[in-house]
């Protein structure tokens, strides 16, 4: 999602950069090695903090008005539409150290952010500042917090658009390009090591997969850590339900399938294709469904999670506003309480 104007020479690593007044108001990698030193150690886990949809916004009788509000919000500037969201105070210098075309319309960036004070929670986004660019972009982080701890990098997957920050990423961004980032967002999964296990239902539409993929990777890292060490947070089951036009538009599909194969009975994925015209790769075929995400599909997923264990289920949604409206209404009709339906507006 975002973009920040980095003023050359205005700060060293760890200093806040001078920002315009508007900003303050609110597998084919191209690589470059050794740009920055690795960051210092950081905390492994943080207390559970989730951002539920307020009850007044979750009631089925109000979902239509919610959708209209969200549609109008999409037309506003990133800093305006996120003015009421939590965000860090510090802005950190970053450097592009990897570029990959995730699909014909989505470019994936790897950013080196070396300062040890830079952290994020799975599901959050960054304000993205570009030198000489007034507009600030807003892009969900699609990587796991463990990647930042281990390698000092984060990843963003940005769909092409004429909006200046996204256009810059697709047309002007190069290896070693210098930018700046600031973390924000109240939509995340960050359980405490001793917190109760919960099942996760992740429902994504289009590039709305980005924050949910970060959450899935975080759950996967927690599962691996618990299995290896026999301690720490033990995740429940994770069900991903992901809708896209066709397999070419399914981002991260290979690694999602690999996660399900690594932990069968714990990680599940269901890819819904709405406009697939070609034959599907046999390796993906077992995970493919046709059509949109219906109430019956959601019922089956909730039942599968219930069979995996008697745990509370949290549902994270990210996609176009009509999809969020529809899925929220279906889930409430199926008996999932509004406070356990969490969503990220997809701009």
Topology (elements, then pairings):
Elements: H1 21-25, E1 30-31, H2 55-58, H3 63-73, H4 78-81, E2 92-101, E3 106-112, E4 125-129, E5 137-140, H5 145-151, E6 153-159, H6 164-171, E7 178-184, E8 199-205, H7 209-229, E9 238-244, H8 253-262, E10 267-273, E11 288-290, H9 295-308, E12 313-319, H10 321-333, E13 341-345
Parallel strand pairs: 8-9, 8-12, 9-10, 10-11, 12-13
Antiparallel strand pairs: 1-2, 2-3, 2-7, 3-6, 4-5, 4-7
Strand content: 15-25%
Q: How much helix, percentage-wise, in residues?
A: 25-40%
The backbone outline, from C-alpha atoms, is globular
By DSSP, the count of extended strands is 13
Structural class: alpha/beta
Give the helix tally.
10
Describe the protein.
With 347 residues, this protein is α/β, with parallel strands linked by helices. The chain is 28% helix and 22% strand. The chain has helices spanning 21-25, 55-58, 63-73, 78-81, 145-151, 164-171, 209-229, 253-262, 295-308, 321-333, and strands at residues 30-31, 92-101, 106-112, 125-129, 137-140, 153-159, 178-184, 199-205, 238-244, 267-273, 288-290, 313-319, 341-345. Strands 1, 2, 3, 4, 5, 6 and 7 form a 7-stranded antiparallel beta sheet that branches. α3 (63-73) runs antiparallel to α10 (321-333). It is globular. Residues 1-27 and 32-74 have low confidence and may be disordered.
Sum up the structure in keywords.
single chain, 347 residues, alpha/beta, 7-stranded antiparallel beta sheet, globular, disordered N terminus
Concise summary:
The chain has about 350 residues and is of the alpha/beta class. The protein has helices at about 20-25, 55-60, 65-75, 80, 145-150, 165-170, 210-230, 255-260, 295-310, 320-335, and strands spanning about 30, 90-100, 105-110, 125-130, 135-140, 155-160, 180-185, 200-205, 240-245, 265-275, 290, 315-320, 340-345. Strand 4 and strand 5 form a beta hairpin.
């Amino acid at each position: 999602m975002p973009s920040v104007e980095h003023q050359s020479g205005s700060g060293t690593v760890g200093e806040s950069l001078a920002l315009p007044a508007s900003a303050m108001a609110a597998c084919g990698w191209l690589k470059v090695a050794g740009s920055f030193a690795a960051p210092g150690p950081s905390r492994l886990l943080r207390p559970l903090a989730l951002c539920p949809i307020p009850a007044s916004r979750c009631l089925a009788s109000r979902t239509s008005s919610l959708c209209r509000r969200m549609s109008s919000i999409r037309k506003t500037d990133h800093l305006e539409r996120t003015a009421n969201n939590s965000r860090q105070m510090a802005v950190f210098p970053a450097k592009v150290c990897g570029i990959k075309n995730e699909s014909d319309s989505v470019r994936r960036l790897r950013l080196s952010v070396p300062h040890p004070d830079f952290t994020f929670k799975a599901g959050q986004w960054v304000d993205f500042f570009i030198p000489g660019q007034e507009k600030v972009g807003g892009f969900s982080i699609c990587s796991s917090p463990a990647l930042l701890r281990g390698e000092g990098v984060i990843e963003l997957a940005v769909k092409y658009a004429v909006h200046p920050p996204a256009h810059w990423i697709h047309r002007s961004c190069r290896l070693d390009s210098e930018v700046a980032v600031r973390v924000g967002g109240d939509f995340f999964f960050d359980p405490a090591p001793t917190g109760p296990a919960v099942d996760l239902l992740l429902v994504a539409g289009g590039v709305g997969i980005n924050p949910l993929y970060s959450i899935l990777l975080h759950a996967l890292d927690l599962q691996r850590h618990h299995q290896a060490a026999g301690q720490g947070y033990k995740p429940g089951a994770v069900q991903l339900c992901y809708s896209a036009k066709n397999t070419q538009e399914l981002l991260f599909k290979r690694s999602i399938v690999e996660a399900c194969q690594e932990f069968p009975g714990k990680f599940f994925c269901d890819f819904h294709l709405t406009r697939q015209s070609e034959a599907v790769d046999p390796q993906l075929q077992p995970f493919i469904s046709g059509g949109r995400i219906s109430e019956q599909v959601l019922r089956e997923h909730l039942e599968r999670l219930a069979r995996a264990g008697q745990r509370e289920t949290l549902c994270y949604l990210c996609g176009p506003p009509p999809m969020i409206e529809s899925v929220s209404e279906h889930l409430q009709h199926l008996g999932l309480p509004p406070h356990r339906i969490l969503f990220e507006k997809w701009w």
